[in-house]
TrEMBL record:
Upper taxonomic lineage: Eukaryota, Metazoa, Ecdysozoa, Nematoda, Chromadorea
Source species, domain of life: Eukaryota
Protein name, per record: Carboxylic ester hydrolase
Family classification: Belongs to the type-B carboxylesterase/lipase family.
Keyword Hydrolase attributed: yes
Length: 518
């Protein structure tokens, strides 16, 4: 480079910096392709952020995407964060959201938990890169973006030219309570009032995170028009909801749903009313919705945690107490099929693992109603299995008998020991909670011309088989081919054949795919 070229470069750099600073002062969105640097930090519309390097990536942790939901903002919709003028150090994960007391993530948790992590390639070009946004699972009561760390994400995704985003959302009653009940006058509010005062904070946290990404991702070299949202288990069901809610369906372009669907029965239970009232009562809060909310805001976290523990109910059906709810706002219709018809048609990957429900069946009530304690594995028999079938069947006449016939009587196995019945429970729970809902959602989206791809993961790590009588896949997708498939899909909207994808799903294939166990 000659002296003249060097001078031109320096002038361009000064002009670019000045331009970025003007946008910073104006609090407006950064210009596409302009990666603003402010004393070594990335300049976002909210202020400068400084992260750190790790191998081929730059990592930014604990960025607030909303005001802390504490004090008067507890049990309220998330609000945009206040801008900051000094450099925000983004070198450590923020606290996890408060979840189940015995969960690993709960050891470093706080109400002030609405933080985001962004990881990008170190030597990025001026070309905006595709974005992969991860939604964790955990049954809406556990989980954290912190759980996944950043090292493997950088090695597996960021190194391939992808900007990765993860974030936290509120859990348990902090993320979902009901301020009305159609059967209890003192909790009753009108439909329109529910629209104005929806209490689905978790879903609104997710919406706020997506909106924040759209505002800041260009500053990190990400393309706001190439966002893939992915999740597993309850996170997958969340992604399912995000694809069809009018509040969020326009905010991203592609979806990956790993082992979960909004069509699942555990996403549509009716027990949230009772659960909320028990929580209010345990917290010592009574009266109108307004009175209850005011009371809850005065309680300490310790008091709320005691109320949560006191109001916890051992479910006898396969449901989750803090699932999403049709509220006339985030989900304006009870008919998810009509929402699918009205939503943008997104390229989507759906998948499940073989023996999907094994970890729930064998993990001490991880999924209410079907967990079998280790102490009862060897004695689990037909009678115990029938009791689970009854819980699933509920008040549907004849369903228990039909399930018994399908899973037990029609089996060709000659051995009817505890392992046989545990396997049958895994099969039934997998069909009920995962496979059938996934196929139902896939079928409806294909009917409405969504580009859909399917996979079935059948890998099983022998290390996971110790003392476990069920053989099948583990829940984590560690296959290199699978990672390459996600990378390709994030970049192009199409997974490679080598990923093991069953292929583009068509309606006439439904029966044959069901025959594979998916």
């Amino acid at each position: 480079m000659n002296k003249h070229q060097s001078s031109e470069t320096n002038v361009f750099s000064v002009r670019a910096t000045a331009l970025c600073l003007r946008h910073y002062v104006a609090r407006s969105s950064p210009i596409s392709g302009c990666f603003c640097i402010f004393h070594g930090a990335v300049l976002t519309p909210y202020g400068p952020v400084e992260g750190f390097d790790f191998e081929d990536g730059e990592v930014f942790l604990g960025i607030p995407f909303a005001k802390p939901p504490v004090g008067e903002l507890r049990f309220e919709r998330p609000e945009k964060p206040n801008p900051w003028d000094t450099i925000l150090p983004a070198k450590n994960f923020g606290p996890s959201c408060i979840g189940d007391a015995d969960s690993k993530e709960n050891k470093n948790s706080s109400e002030d938990c609405l933080h985001m992590n962004i990881m990008r390639p170190k030597n990025h070009s001026r070309t905006l890169l595709p974005v992969f946004l991860w939604v964790y699972g955990g049954g809406f009561t556990t989980g954290s973006s912190n759980h996944y760390g950043y090292k493997e994400i950088v090695r597996n995704f960021v190194s391939q030219g992808i900007v990765v985003v993860s974030f936290n959302y509120r859990l348990g009653p902090y993320g979902k309570i009901l301020n009305s009940n159609q059967n209890k006058t003192k909790f009753r509010v009108s439909y329109h009032k529910r629209r104005r005062h929806a209490r689905q904070f978790r879903a609104l946290d997710q919406k706020a995170a997506l909106e924040f990404v759209l505002e800041v991702i260009t500053s990190f070299g990400g393309d706001p028009k190439q966002i893939t949202v992915a999740g597993e288990s309850a996170g997958s069901a969340i992604v399912s909801g995000l694809t069809i809610s009018p509040k969020t369906s326009q905010l991203f372009q592609r979806a990956v749903q790993m082992s979960g669907s909004s069509f699942a029965a555990w996403m549509a239970a009716s027990n949230i009313n009772d659960q909320s009232r028990k929580f209010f009562k345990a917290a010592g809060c009574r009266g109108s919705s307004k009175d209850v909310l005011k009371c809850l805001k005065t309680k300490s976290v310790e008091e709320l945690e005691k109320a949560k523990e006191k109001s916890a109910t051992l479910e006898t059906s396969v449901t989750l107490p803090y699932h999403p709810r049709i509220d006339g706002d985030f989900f304006p219709s009870h008919d998810f099929r009509s929402l699918i018809r009205r939503s943008p048609k997104k390229p989507s990957i759906f998948g499940a693992t073989d023996a999907e429900a094994a970890m729930f069946v064998l993990a001490e009530n991880k999924l209410p109603g079907i967990g079998v304690p280790h102490s009862k594995w060897s004695s689990f028999n037909r009678s115990a299995l029938i009791q689970v079938f009854k819980a699933v069947a509920g008040e549907v006449d004849g369903l228990t008998e039909l399930m018994a016939e399908f899973y037990i009587t029609n089996s060709t196995s000659k051995f009817r020991n505890s392992t046989f019945y545990l396997n049958k429970l895994v099969e039934a729970a997998g069909d009920y909670a995962f496979y059938v809902p996934i196929i139902q959602e896939v079928d409806e989206k294909v009917r409405n011309h969504w580009p859909i791809f399917l996979y079935l993961e059948t890998y099983f790590d022998p290390k996971d088989a110790k003392d476990v009588p069920i053989q099948g896949a583990n829940m984590l997708m560690s296959s290199r081919l699978f990672l390459e498939g996600l990378t390709s899909f994030t970049k192009t909207g199409k997974p490679p054949i080598l990923m093991g994808i069953l292929g583009r799903f068509h309606q006439q294939e439904q029966q044959s795919l069901c025959g594979t166990g998916l």
